[in-house]
What we know:
By secondary structure, the protein is α/β, with parallel strands linked by helices. It contains 12 helices and 15 strands.
Amino acid sequence: MRYLPHTQEDIKEMLAVIGRTSLDDLFDTIPDAVKTKTSLNLPDPLSEWDLNDHMEKLASDNIACKGYTCFIGAGSYDHHIPAIIPYLVSRSEFATAYTPYQPEVSQGTLQGIYEFQTMVTDLLGMDIATASHYDCGTALAECALIALRKNKKADKIAVSDLVHPSHRQIIDTYLKPSGYKMVTIGHTKEGLTDISALEAMDDIAGLAVQSPNFFGHIEDLAACKKLAESKKILFITSFTEALAWGLLKNPGSFGADLVAGEGQSLGIAKTFGGPGLGLLAGTAKLMRDLPGRLVGRTKDTNGEDGYVLTLSTREQHIRREKASSNICSNNGLNAMTAAMYLSTIGKIGIREIAQLNHDKAVYLKSALTAAGFEPVFDQPFFNEFVMKAPKNFKQKRAELIDRHCMFAGLDLEPFYPQLTDHYLFCATEKVSRQQMDQLAKEVA
Length: 444
């Protein structure tokens, strides 16, 4: 089956219009020295059914959480997604929506973003939230840049080493070309950020702390805020597990200036690591500094509700390189998915799911301890925790994947070299008691 829409006659006619005789003539401006002289090393073409078979074979080499038991979180969580969510979000009016540069004809898209932003502010306890961020890492990097722009005398941002390692890499990537620096703050033996290290630091524009942190522990956000105030810097919090706020006091209640988070848990499948959903919220005084789409509700000339892309002077189509909103896509489909998920489960539902996550994690930690694992930290946690594994667990872990279809924890050594034989475990509502008991039995 051919996929090219143009016939040879079409091509000949188009070439005649532009004064060319062949398609090769279109590349005359490219110097011969940089042109490829040999043919491309490509396989022979396949028929449609052969191509389908080939793609299915490639896909079968991947391992998906469906059919496997996943005890790994670390920023991407295996949660139940109500059947209504994929059905609704796959409708064409949602799936094909894009950045609303013509707000007057994009009322549905704008209303969806408005509802999403409203729910995010309720969830996080903040004044305002924006939309369009790719994931927590990029949203957190934007928070760092806001803090540095607000404090003209500072050139550094202090970041806890218990912020997700990938997110710290993203911050570093963002800051280097701008001439700014990221200063990493270590953690205590209790598995919490050592904020006392900040007291001796100068030229700091902000403090960024993740809670629940990468080890799953609940940070003392009140103490972080107090120290940030004493240094007259912005207090930035982040998170990778959005459902935690169904159970924990939200960042806004601790006086956070900026909050960046990952919204993947809100009805978005893991999908081999992406796409995610960046959540970004702040206080009202930082409204004009926040990047991303910002939708407001107003009244039209007939007195009916209408939605507008507000504060558009922040946008790149107006301010160009000076824009604070410099992200090209509104990530609208994932934002819509999160809004649908939160609407579906409601305030009571999110608390019940959060409680279930916590209770199952507590049970799993107890079961692994009885099976020979050693608890490392004695701190309140949400649905993740660190355990020191017994001897030969690395081999056993590979066996659990191959023979029992289980992902048994994340090896922390690549991220924290001092934590040899330490693993980060996670339990969500999708993990049954029988599966947790089976894991404990296998490693005992």
